[in-house]
Amino acid sequence: xxxxxxxxxxxxxxxxxxxxxxxxxxxxxxxxxxxxxxxxxxxxxxxxxxxxxxxxxxxxxxxxxxxxxxxxxxxxxxxxxxxxxxxxxxxxxxxxxxxxxxxxxxxxxxxxxxxxxxxxxxxxxxxxxxxxxxxxxxxxxxxxxxxxxxxxxxxxxxxxxxxxxxxxxxxxxxxxxxxxxxxxxxxxxxxxxxxxxxxxxxxxxxxxxxxxxxxxxxxxxxxxxxxxxxxxxxxxxxxxxxxxxxxxxxxxxxxxxxxxxxxxxxxxxxxxxxxxxxxxxxxxxxxxxxxxxxxxxxxxxxxxxxxxxxxxxxxxxxxxxxxxxxxxxxxxxxxxxxxxxxxxxxxxxxxxxxxxxxxxxxxxxxxxxxxxxxxxxxxxxxxxxxxxxxxxxxxxxxxxxxxxxxxxxxxxxxxxxxxxxxxxxxxxxxxxxxxxxxxxxxxxxxxxxxxxxxxxxxxxxxxxxxxxxxxxxxxxxxxxxxxxxxxxxxxxxxxxx
Length: 497
Prior knowledge:
Layout: E1 3-10, E2 13-20, E3 23-31, E4 41-50, E5 55-59, E6 66-69, H1 75-78, E7 96-103, E8 112-114, E9 119-120, E10 124-127, E11 133-135, H2 142-156, E12 161-164, H3 173-196, E13 202-204, H4 209-215, E14 224-227, H5 230-241, E15 251-253, H6 260-263, H7 266-273, E16 277-279, E17 285-290, E18 294-300, H8 310-331, E19 336-341, H9 348-362, E20 369-371, E21 379-384, H10 391-395, E22 396-398, E23 407-409, H11 411-427, E24 432-438, H12 439-447, H13 452-456, E25 463-469, E26 477-482, E27 494-495
Helix pairs in contact: 2-3, 8-9
């Protein structure tokens, strides 16, 4: 299977897309001002000790002081199969300590931190100050657990503690050994930085979308990593340089004039993802609807009528739908309860097979899920752990034109399309681009300086004029190229920055 990963960026918005055989299977958006900080390591100072609560507050350079519990076990400890007691941490006011964020700040509460540093890989969690080997509870086979623990202890050479993650049985011993060395190298880097970094500076950043995407990669499973933004290119290269599996060799800096996501066919597939309707290859289709409590997916035969046997028609369509449903919940990052209304079937064997197909494809998802048997009404319920906001929520909002009874695309969708068309305009040989667009969208671009870096670098020497229109729908715009040198523009036109 040919897998590629694409990274793109517009000012503070990052995009990551994964394709398999050119089909989009995963897409994430991250706003840099809202980056998840769980996993980050900081050099902090203890500002207050609460003896009665066996806790302390630590200044880490964040908006609010962080909360440090002296003896509460962390999530990796609970899942490691270890029964050893959690040692109590002893600190006093003024101490400089290294802490790792284990829970994000919420409301008026600061982030929760721990002095028990850990470095998470795809197969292994490395605990530098530990002296144990634990195995995830999800690996149930006793012989396999013992074998993995023994091999990891050998590969770790008695340096630190380790937790064997659920994916480890699918990795080779060489991959596990390389990952252990990579995690150790990250820890050594943290110690070196701690010698010179000031209080409040991050020593290790693990919560960014880029870091997580690359962490879950096995180099031999990906054909290419394509990055169009210079800043992101440097970040991806740095993260890959900490590894020993040759991932750096697969990184390519996209320097073409045409927009990368559009050229790769990703933009077009994103438009399809925003639709509640998903067409299947045989003419059938799915309808995906989000409610307050759950997500409902309806399977319809559509144009597919099959042969003369209605049972076989329903079975074939349901099997095809099961695979697509697993892909769609991953692509849209749908979490919580999902109810699927499959086409009615009479044969119990067919019902069982459809559930098995759905379970098989959902099992390939890195996010935990659980599937229940099909009910007498042809309904299948499954749950998928909420890992972050659903992808569609980043790209859609309530429609202001219908008082919230429907949805329209968020401004970022239109802005990405405008950027693409300006790219194409200059790629076609024009030196000036005139953009007629909605006044609100123009204000978004200018006030947030979304195209500043592009204008200073990729579009240097070009001219862009924005012409606002109050009557334009938010998704409506045109981009016109010009080389005449003499322009006739309305007074309200503004040159970009």
